[in-house]
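Aim 2 progress. For MHC class II alpha, the working sequence is reproduced below.
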Amino acid sequence: MMKTIMKLLLFLSSVLWVSAQVLHEDLGITGCSDFDGEEMYALDGEELWYADFKNHKGVEPQPSFIDHISYPEGAYEAAVAQQQVCRSNLKTVREALKNPPVKKDAPSSPMIYPEESVEVGVSNTLICHVSGFYPAPVNVSWTKNNQDVTSESSINVPYPNKDGTFTQISRLVFTPQLGDIYSCSVKHLALTEPLTRTWDVEDQTPQPGIGPSVFCGVGLTLGLLGVAAGTFFLIKGNECS
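Predicted structure tokens for this construct:
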């Protein structure tokens, strides 16, 4: 994977239609390197379709809250053909610019957080959000209690930011148990060492009974203060009469 990201990437992205009021933004990306490639389409920041060149198919990772949009048969084959055009263009650019050095922007510190509120024993998803890097992609690995669980995770295709950098999100389905500690580590050619963030199940799980106990304790204290204040004013009133 590191060999892949160390190769020059050529990304061609375009805004296909934007109204004067920016009602919708339609995005298409074609990218390639010597060993990797990307073809992706999105609408208003949501991925609609991308070519999975490893599994040789098109994928429609659309969220459930939008009307599903199906891409025509042959879309994946067209993406494969487009990769040949992309690599031909990449070769031309390299020769014309005499293999210029690749711009390198390191990703910001990754964010790791659960998709849903944490409940012990209830299936959830951990998200590792990585942004601000160039070129794409990054390599994200996961551990559970220092054991590698990367094979159980998934990662989206690189998504372009408006500043020319990229964002990728890796997901790990897990069942929280007290004592478990997870981590995600990010590798990128602009980094000298991986960026790692950890996530502790126990730190995220509400402790039963603490909230009501504190509330009752505060209520009792305020009640006692109220009785004391009432007694004080009663005594003062008797002294004045």
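The CA atoms of residues 185 and 196 lie 4 Å apart. This observation will guide construct design in the next reporting period.
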